[in-house]
Amino acid sequence: MANVLELVSKELQQLEETKTFKYEVPLESAQDGVVRVNGKKVIMLASNNYLGLSNDPVVRKAAIRGIKEYGYGVASVRFICGTQDIHFDLEKKISNFLRTEDTILFSSCWAANEAFFASLTNEKLGFDSYRDVVYSDRLNHASIIDGQRLCKAETTDKKIYKHSDVSDLVRQLEDDKNKDYRFRVIATDGVFSMEGDLAPLDQLVEVAKKYDAMLVVDDSHAVGVCGKRGRGTPEAKGVHGQVDVLTGTLGKAIGGAAGGYISGKKELISYMRQKGRPYIFSNSLPPSIVYGASAAFDLIKKDKAIVKRLHKNTAYFRKAIVELGFKVLEGDHPIVPIMLGEAAVAQEMSAALLKEGVYIKGLWYPVVPKGEARLRAQVSAALSKNDMKKALGAFKKVGKKMGVI
Hints:
By secondary structure, this protein is of the alpha/beta class. It is built from 15 helices and 13 strands.
């Protein structure tokens, strides 16, 4: 034990020296457009609470009702006694929202991604000898990467294609077209969380069909966010209902609590219920989260103004921050990467903005490539026009003081 502590202490010291060591800044309030930090109200620009539903009165009341009617927790995994009728109801609601045949709930999208890749590739499924291949976008989320790490090396080839580069993917598929693979899987984020850009799903759908591959999309940063009705990247790219497998989270736009899912064909989802280890061996989602997420989906479907407000806020903030003189990565997603270059600049600016009443986080190597340090602004429907004006005023003041603009 002493040796472990010694090595860990040395590693922590190196992380602190290289500025990759991250300390949490605790909130003293509910997650919302404006939060309290160190006794002071600050404008939140670092949250995945895209639709502002984390603190929505309807969602909060629904979560309370879930506890009153179904209790605090289930104290079991799904297949023993942890399935309540509300779990099936939420799964049906998600399937309807995404236009898929069936859905299976997990504790998180991380668990869902791990379950999907390991369950699909590590089972023989009637084959004594087989080999699968997974083609993965270079900037895919860590949960997809870790899911693929669970695929056995002796039976699965793992290949990386250039970020959103369909031609590079096609080149690799062409090179492999005569190989006797059992499964060909193309895996991508719908929205890439560090860049805020959308995967070219319209093209990927066609490529997957042409090469008889399964297209798997983690749409965590897009559900409730992208598309006219918030149905995600498939809707935004005109292929709603055409993606083979969608994974996603309930912990961002959909109320911001916890939970994830895999959504797709009935046979595949039924198979995951039998083979998905994070599903089989983890407690079911508690009633409060099931009720809250269900209410969030109902709100999105009934009140079209919520998604419209997010899109309007995003367009306003993107235009205004550029007019101030900041360099941002182009796009129309609420993730707005404000490029600063050096880690020290991002660190200093994040701290200075917090003092000016804006909560925003810096990202630097190894989270993003060296020389591409940035602040990642995340716009929310919970922000008022006045909130954004105040935040932009702080950006102008700090940016000029630091010589960034």
